[in-house]
């Protein structure tokens, strides 16, 4: 579970950072979720490489939970501003691994030892 969570954290972190690169290349460098995406993306990547499983799991739990909040906010704002497009679909789908790993890592951390 932890190895898979680490791989997912790196992939999601890189995906969020790459999405910001695409936004900047298309002239949309400044938007409401820029800072949240940059901070949480880098945090998730760092959490995946944190030494030790317990500390890494706790950091990834926080990162996945924070990214879920960013995805929820982004999805809601996109829907309120005009409909469903590729970005809205991606932010909606991004919620799935965030929720799965936040719950899974919470279960792992709740175990004694």
What does it look like?
With 113 residues, the protein is an all-alpha fold. It is 83% helix and 0% strand. The protein is built from 4 helices and no strands. Helix 1 (2-25) packs antiparallel against helix 2, helix 2 (34-48) runs antiparallel to helix 3 (53-82) and helix 3 (53-82) runs antiparallel to helix 4 (86-110). The radius of gyration is 15 Å and the shape is elongated. The chain starts with a helix and ends with a helix. 26% of the residues are buried.
Which keywords apply here?
83% helix; mainly alpha; 4 helices; 113 residues
Low-confidence stretches: none
Secondary structure tally: strands? 0
State the share of residues found in helices, binned by percent: over 70%
Distance between the termini: 16 Å
Give the CA-based shape: elongated
Mean pLDDT: 91
Percent of sequence in beta strands = under 5%
The run of helices and strands is HHHH
| SSE class | mainly alpha
Instruction: Report the C-alpha radius of gyration, rounded.
Output: 15 Å
The largest pleated sheet is described as: none
Contiguous helical run count: 4
């Amino acid at each position: 579970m932890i190895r898979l969570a680490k791989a997912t954290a790196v992939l999601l972190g890189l995906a969020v950072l790459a999405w910001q690169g695409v936004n900047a290349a298309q002239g949309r460098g400044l938007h409401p979720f820029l800072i949240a995406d940059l901070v949480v993306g880098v945090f998730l990547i760092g959490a995946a490489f944190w030494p030790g499983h317990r500390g890494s799991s706790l950091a990834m739990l926080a990162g996945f939970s924070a990214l879920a909040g960013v995805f929820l906010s982004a999805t809601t704002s996109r829907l309120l501003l005009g409909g469903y497009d590729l970005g809205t679909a991606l932010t909606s789908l991004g919620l799935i691994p965030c929720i799965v790993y936040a719950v899974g890592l919470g279960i792992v951390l709740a175990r004694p030892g």
